[in-house]
Specification:
single chain; alpha+beta; four-stranded antiparallel sheet; 26% helix
Length: 73
């Protein structure tokens, strides 16, 4: 079982790294999709406010999965 997830996604013309950790569930396609969607949504909102990184929280099957996003340098 994986306990972390990291991926580079494109958001608002930026390469953004999203990371989640302490994941207690198996990384299946649905969970990966939820993590990617949460990361993209939060990063898009924060970039529009001139932030370059911030906290992530994804609720999946009653588990709060915490993470961080940042614009790749």
């Amino acid at each position: 079982m994986e306990d972390s997830f990291e991926k580079i996604i494109n958001v608002c013309c930026h390469s953004v790294i999203i990371r989640f950790w302490d994941i207690e569930q198996d990384l299946n396609d649905d969970l990966i999709k939820a993590l990617e969607e949460e990361g993209e949504s939060r990063a898009r909102d924060c970039i529009s406010r001139d932030y370059s990184g911030g906290e992530l929280n994804c609720l999946y099957l009653d588990e709060e999965i915490r993470g961080w996003w940042e614009i790749q340098k």
